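Run folding on both entries below.
>entry_1
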Amino acid sequence: MDRLSLLAVFAHPDDESFAFGGSLAKYAAEGVRTGLVTATAGQAGRSPGAYPIAPEELGLIRVEELRCACRVLGVGSLHLLGYKDNHLSEADPEVVEHAIVNVIRAVRPLVVVTFGPDGSGSGHPDYRAISQLATAAFFAAGDEAKYPGQPDAGLAPFRGRKLYYLTSPVDTASQPQGASFSPVTTVIDVADHVDAKLAAFRCHRTQMGDYPRLMERLAQYGPREFFFLAATQDLPSIRQDVLGPPYEDDLFAGLR
């Protein structure tokens, strides 16, 4: 079994901190190898009260904010795909999938985490796109017939073991029309890493208009992050058809 390793695949700078920062910090502190793929530079990100700035310049600033957050969270490797914010769904899906497959084969993560197929409740087109692309790449990375020739570059096929979607325990009936969340299968206690999560989000200075929303979420659900076990490979003992308590309390359940 490979060393415990985790790769998060998200659309924008700040996704990693707002949605997943506690878990990233927790596993990094445990010695798990952590990596992050960020598909866009967040050029379209506008927080209330943010100073006016050209999209290209904003993207450069947000990438530096992301690097700051990665240092706080202990992320071992950051992989920037360089796509335009709000236009990820317009990119050639095979090209993006290939790029994510390259990262998976290089990082060799046992666990991959991304957004759910409906944008984790927001319906954001970039969230939906990265979910589909990361899911396809999770399976393609282990397929020797996909993207042949990469082993010569040190990127041999690799089968990740578990794919998770970020989700929420909220009643979807109370959400905006069309919002949807995957059911909860896994709850991670991040009480010891909330300070790191908040500090990482504060690195995203241009997005501080969302800080109150982050605090509201912490007040509502406590220091917990929620996931749906979307797929497994080579783990026949893990059942995915049973939802509800008792939930998994470790993304590496069955792998340690």
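>entry_2
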Amino acid sequence: MNKKSVYQFSVQKLNGEHVNLDNYKGKVLLLVNIASECGFTPQLKELEALRKNYESEEFEILAFPSNDFGGQEPLEGFALGDFCEKNYGVSFPVFEKIRVRGSYAHPLYKFLSDKKLNGNIGASPRWNFHKYLINTKGETVDFFYPFTKPNSSRIKKKINKLLIKEKL
């Protein structure tokens, strides 16, 4: 297994079931740490629009609720999924709440944040809605700060480039 790939990690769904990220092999991924009480929370609607925009492509968004920034994620378990679905129409996977920075960070986020581990990016989330772009080989290829809107041309251009490159 490629040690520079997110496919080595397992994450937990809201129902407690473990999911290996290698289930997403061959897809371009956007991993986002989210929170329900953040000023950036309306980005959930934009993330869903982005997912729908690429519905026919090998693209998926994976959301990881986190309470690491300002205590802005008080929800737990199914309440997280319900909030995202009812308020923003989210249909992409929302996983169990995790830590995304510091010594207690989930191994996936330690990997995403550390250039020594992932080979490309050295950027820890500084707030909710930090986004990591993953290519079809599971490699971390870019990141976007929380203020970068999901429907921005910058994000779409990067996704398009990866989707086109992978088809060649």
